[in-house]
Amino acid sequence: MIRYRRAMHLIMNKQLPTDRSKEQFNAQVSNSKLLPSQKEQKRHLKSKLKFQRRIHKLETRIAHAISRKDKVVELQARKDLDELLHSQSQKDDIVTQPTSCILPETIGSSHNTDTGRDRAIAEVTLIFQKLLTSIHNQAKECAPGASTKEVQNSKARNLLHHMTKGTQTQNMFQDVSALRGYVRKKFHGRATLIIKSLSELSPTVLEIAPTIEDSNQRKIMNLCHSKLTEVERVCSIGCGPGNDVVGLITFLRNCLSNELADADTVTHETKGYKLKQVMLLDFAISEWKEAALNDLIPILKPEYVDNISCQSCDVTKPLKDEEANNPSIAEFVQNADIFLTSYLLSETRNSWDEFYIEIVQLAPEGALFYFSEPMAWQLHRLIKMSTECLISDEEADSLVEDESAAKDPTSLHRLKFIWIDSSMHYPELQQMDGRAGGPAVLLAIKL
Question: How much is the pLDDT for 148?
Fold first, then answer.
C-alpha cells in the first residue's frame, strides 16, 4: 500500500521527540535504571511500536481478504485502516490520503517485485509439498489410532517450547516424529521469511519506500543487494530441516532474476540459476538427515544446487574445536558468499560468541550474514560486540595470527548492519526488542 506507507511514515516521523539533546537510552535497560527523560522516550517508542503493529494487522487482513476475494472483509479492513490513520493524523496535524482509494493490485511495494516474490513463495510451497509427501511415505512411527500429522505436531510443540526457552538438548532431537512435526510447523514460514525480508532490498522497493536519511545505510543496502546477485556458495548454520536454503534459492531464482531481466542485463532464463555449493551445519545433523534432509536433498539436487554437504557443528563451541575434527568446515567458510542463521542465537543465548567471531574472521570480504530471531535482543548484543573497542584494519589482520584473537569481539568490527524487518525505515524503533510484523531480521556484510 504505497499511500498507506507514506502516510504512516509521516505519522511516525511526526511523533519523534523534537528535543534531540535528550540523553539517548538503551532499550534493553530496565526502567529503574533510566532517567525520567529516558523513561518518557522509551514509553513514546513503545507507543509507536504498538501503532505499527495495529497497522500491520490491518494490512495483513486486507491482503488475505484480497487473496480470498472477500470484498466485505476487505472493505471493512480498509475502513478500519482509514480511521486509524485519520485519528492518528489528527493528533499530529497531518493530512493523509484515504486507503479506500487504493486498488487491490497496488498492495505491496512494486508489481514486479511482488510478482517475483509470489513466484518464489509458490516455489517454496511446491518444494514443501514434495518434502511432506516424501516424509509421509516413510513415516512409520505413528501411534495406533492417531494420524501421523497429529503425533508429529504434538511432539513438535514440546520441542519448540524448549527451543524457545533455550533449554533444548541433543537427546530431544532423537525423536524423528518431533522433528517432522517441526518441519510441518516451521519450514514454510521460515523459508518465506527470507524471501520477504530480502525482497525489501530491491531497488524498486527502495525507490518508493520512505526516505532513508542515513546515506551510509542506503549505501549498505545497495551493496548487500548487489552481493546477493553473486551468491553461489551458501553456509546454513543451525540448518535444521534446510528451510533457510530453500528460501534463499527460490528468492535468487525468482526475485533477483526478475529484476535483472527487467534491467536487460540477463534473460528470464536466469530463473534456472542454481547454487554451486551448500553446506548444512547443525549440532543434530544426523537426526535432521533422518527426519528431513535425506528427503529434501534429492528434491534440491541437482535442479537447485550442484552439491550439498551436511556436517555436524555446535555453535556453543569454538570453531577451531570443530575444525580439528572436520577441517572441511573452515575451508568452506573461507569461500562462502552468505551465511544463514535463523532463531539460533536466541536458542543458544550468550553461548555463540566465539564461534561467530571465528566465522567472521575466516569469511571472505563481501560475505553476507543473514540473521532472524523472534526478538532482537541477541542481535542487539551482536551489534554491540561489533562496535566495542574498534581497531584499525591493520591491527585486525595481525590479530588473525594471534590465538587470543578468537575471543576478541573487535574481530566483528568489519561487519556493517542493516535491519530488513518492520523497523527497516524507522531507525528510532530499531533499538527496541520487539517488532511490528513478525521476527527481527538483520543482514550484515563484511567490508
Answer: 73
Q: Return the C-alpha torsion angle 164, 182, 433, 197, nearest 10.
A: 160
CA distance 64 to 57: 11
What span, in angstroms and rounded, lies between the C-alpha atoms of 357 and 126?
A: 37
* Residue whose C-alpha cell reads 571465528 in the numeric block: 358
Burial of residue 33, with CB atoms counted within 10 A of its CB: 0-12 exposed, 13-18 middle, 19 or more buried = exposed
Give the helix ranges, DSSP H, for 24-173: 36-68, 71-92, 111-138, 148-165
Residue among 224, 234, 214 nearest 447 (CA)? 224
Q: Which residues contact 285 (CB under 8 A, 6 or more apart)?
A: 239, 293, 310, 311, 312, 313
Q: Residue 137: exposed, middle, or buried by beta-carbon count in 10 A (0-12, 13-18, 19+)?
A: exposed
Question: What cell was used for 304?
Answer: 537447485
Per-residue pLDDT tens digits for 134-193: 988 876 555 444 457 788 888 888 888 888 888 888 888 888 989 999 999 999 999 999
The tens digit of pLDDT for each residue in 188-239 reads 999 999 999 999 998 887 776 666 666 788 899 999 999 999 999 999 999 9
- Could you give the count of Cα atoms lying within 13 Å of 318 in the half-sphere of its Cβ? 11
Sheet holding 440-446, edge to edge: 305-312, 275-282, 233-237, 338-342, 368-373, 440-446, 415-419
Q: How far apart are CA 340 and CA 244, in angstroms?
A: 7
Cα 429 to chain centroid, rounded: 17
Q: What is the Cα 362 distance to its own chain's centre?
A: 22
Q: What DSSP line would sit under 113-139, residue for residue?
A: HHHHHHHHHHHHHHHHHHHHHHHHHH-
For residues 250-265, one letter each, b for 16 or more C-beta atoms within 10 angstroms of the residue's C-beta and e for the rest, the string is bbbbbbbbbbbbeeee
Placement of cell 543487494 in the chain: 225
Q: How many CA atoms lie within 13 A of 430 on its CB side?
A: 18
Cα 20 to its chain centre, rounded Å, is 31
